[in-house]
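User: Please predict the structure of the protein below. I'd like the answer in structure-token form so I can feed it into my own downstream comparison script.

Assistant: Understood. Taking the following sequence of 292 residues as input:
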Amino acid sequence: MSRSRQSINAAVSVALYQEQGYLVVPNVLSEAELKAIRRELAELVARASGVTENDAVYDLEDGHTPAVPNVRRIKDPDAVMPSVAALIRHPGMIEILSQLIGPGVRFHASKLNMKSAGGSAVEWHQDWAFYPHTNDDLVAVGVMLDDVDETNGPLCVVPRSHRGVIHDHHANGFFCGAIDPIGSPIDFSSAVELVGSAGSMTFHHVRAVHGSAPNRSTRSRNLLLFQFGAVDAFPLVHPVDDLAKFDQMIVAGEATIEPRVTAGPVRMPLPPAPSQGSIYENQRAMANRFFG
């Protein structure tokens, strides 16, 4: 795919991201790139037959058994999948990120959320609630490994919610990684489903309210997620303790030790969730659920 086809229209698409808090860019990855990721993912899932509980690599669905492996997340896939590690510096993706939050861009983390038929929902939340920084030029990138439509649990974003408050993500006094839908002022019916063909990418602002329903189809919906931030955005929750390692994660631009500090709402994810681990574990403490 040529670089021109990977480019986005700065006059329209960047403006859409800034106004709405999300963006969908079709056909960023080639079929060959998708096949490499799918092949490594299939190998990882096959090895899950020897896993009986969540560990450093796997987050398992409640119905997982050795005979019928059912994985809902690969944690840090860039550490165990060479194809994902290579994708972190994909020129098409970095070009888009540089326009949205650049010129300096830093990789933060990856995860691969898997939704087989009936796969788990992710309740409404804001990523900012998990990891506030000195400024909010942070974005999550979703790489569609399967075709995504309205039936197989697409990522849903509430438009313009990135411009509002940081909602409470606590239950019974502890962080739970989700917004209580009962009494919430958010109009969840306004949420937009981010759909597209395999190889497309979604981009959503760190403060955007988003979630996804269970997969109600017979097809998988595997979504590789990357977290990126501006180079001058420094974390508030887990301060940098190894600057050299922190700077090795820069994918565009130059390093700095001068954080850009901007006014913005922050609510710390403390006290920590009773169920530590992935967002699925955190959300077990919710009092009320939207997706059921």
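That's the full token string. Residues 3-285 form a domain with the Jelly Rolls fold (CATH 2.60.120.620).
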